[in-house]
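Readers of this paper often ask what the protein records in our data store actually look like. Such a record has a labelled line for the sequence and another for the backbone structure tokens. Nothing more is needed to write down the fold, since each code stands for a local backbone conformation. The record that follows is passed on verbatim for readers who wish to inspect the format.
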Amino acid sequence: MADFYESQRAMRSMRKAALQRGVIAVLDVGTSKVACLVLRFDGPDHFKASDGVNAMAGQSAFRIVGAATTRSRGVRFGEIDAMPETERAIRTAVQGAQKMAQIRVDHVIVTISGGAPRSYGLAGQVDVEGGPVSEQDVASCMAACDVPDFGEGREVLHAHPVNFALDHRSGMGDPRGHRGSTLACDMHLLTVDSNTVASVIYCLKRCDLEVAGIASSSYVSGISSLVEDEQELGAACVDLGGGATGLSIFIKKHMIYSDSVRMGGDNITSDIAKGLQVSLATAERLKTLHGGVVATSIDDRDRIALGGAETGDWDRDQRTVSRAELIGIMRPRVEEILEEVRAQLDAAGFDHLPSQQIVLTGGSSQIPGLDHLAPRILGQQVRIGRPLRVSGLPEKATGAAFASAVGLCLFAAHPQDEWWDFEIPADRYPARSLRRAVKWFKDNW
């Protein structure tokens, strides 16, 4: 934990340095595509220190000056599978964005959509020694949280303080400056597989890029797709990606739960390819142009040509399929994904939130008829979400498939405060730590 704490602090420092130079890149490495956006910040005062323990903030003064996407290769289930293939895809996307922006970027903030994320709720409490609550008191309270034994091979990706209580006055967003005797804190901890994180960092280093931050794809998708009232009252964001489906639950503008399903749009494409005996490229085209999940009477008569696209011989290869058959292949897989999401929502206690709004985003959320099928499985309050509009974003990148990339821009410009944004108390360092000795010397001399 201490090692990752220090590495996250180093990433935060690199992000701050990059923002002070006025430019940084964000990279969404997904199973179906790799998207890179280059952000330019206006004026010398674009980066300001936090005035509080922030929830998700609004858009800062930045503009997207470069954007590029390419087909993702070597990524399965949101995790890197073939390093050289992924490296080439990342280089292609980054070089395209740099060429459009006419500037070189060295620091990137990247998303992780795989890694088997797990959520934990932590609680800590400390006594305040008179006077108003200081930043050191907040840091001590966070450090007092009992971190569970999440096992070997796991690393902490996010550690958000979601609630503070001062002398049983709960619901405080920022306790600093208030007076009381007992300070309590509730935190949300998100861990992922350490090998997944290490693979992403190593791949970016091979591309001559420095990692200035890592964020969960489902978290940043929620930032960009949920409106302010949904973030406040309670809502779930379901990011239907190519290789994985991410789930995040927000309340009081904080993420309180995250998980993922190792299925997505690529599974639907694979089902079509196997069911109709066509190539994956043809199956993707059929899904995009003719797919759906709700059949009508006219779909039995709507014939789709298959053969010529496979062989190039349009005269002799006359295979066709009805749209109803295509829907019959797609619908069971979509229902399976939504039922897995429903099971995770039930496990998270989503029914106990004041609002049960569910927002579907991601590229696979654009399947026709999904807005009619999803409410039958997930609940009545379901809508298809699109990411927020940010300055300079190309028109082609405003769809639901770019929810993670847009959310990563907002995360880069103004991230929510986390555990490592505060100075860890000396007594939380290892017994032989040099920093602990220096801290004791400063406090006592």
